[in-house]
Amino acid sequence: MAARPILACLVAGAGMTLPALAQSPAPAVHTTFEVATVKRNTSGDVNSWLDAKPGGIVVAFNLTLRSLIRNAYEVQIFQIEGGPPWLDSDRFDITATAGGPATREQRVSMLKALLEDRFKLVARIEPREMQVLALVLARSDRPLGPQLRPSAVDCEAIRAKADGPPPPGADGQPVCGGRSRAGNIVARGVTMTEVARNITSQAGSFVVDRTGLTGGFDFDLQWTPEPAAGDGRRDILDGPSFTTALQEQLGIKLERQRAPIDILVIDRAEQPSPD
Predict the structure, then answer these.
(1) Whole-number pLDDT of residue 256
(2) Is the dihedral of CA 95, 98, 99, 105 positive or negative?
(3) Which end of the chain is more exposed for a tag (fewer CB within 10 A), N or C?
(4) Considering just the CA atoms, what is the radius of gyration of the chain in Å?
(5) What's the pLDDT at 18?
(6) Same domain, 117 and 186
């Protein structure tokens, strides 16, 4: 799965004690990071990531502006149009802190403000009717696949209070998120909307959730990736394809449909101002 989206608006405040009653601290809302550095990454490293840490800290490594926009606006790659020629080529490192604890939603909002400030990003939403892949249940009697399970963790409550992502569970797997690599996705406590958003790259098209399933789910998905273009080694395809794995392991499938989709059109973006 893709890297986790980010946050904004910091909460801080001094507590007030009344006779026999201690009140919760009054939150102070912040709409931007307190401190942020943005630098070009010219290392040529093939790895890239985005992470949230306690204390309202967000760290991005080797990300393109398109990837930063994807996380800040919480959209899929296929929803982003326009932008400068270097949108997918130039890469950046970002270290930003809110100056105190921040929830996921707050960090997302502050990342958006950072892009508007440092990259002079101007974007607008344009609704369009387009062909998509709809994630639907594979069978009309609605059984889940053997590798898809309702989650016992209330991730909405955790995300509303968390200062950074929760630590891994006892099994070492992520809580309220996922990890992906070639031919494998492990996720815990994710909604089907999040599943749809994060399988877009494997599906090769915009994916929307039409399963009707609510709440969080845990799943483990394994498939055999297609060989790289020009490889020709079809003999290595000894496991299920991605679409077959979805149906056999999770009990869901992809169907072509038309649906109204919000497209994020980039009207303006500039190289970031120097620190």
Answers:
(1) 95
(2) negative
(3) C
(4) 20
(5) 26
(6) no
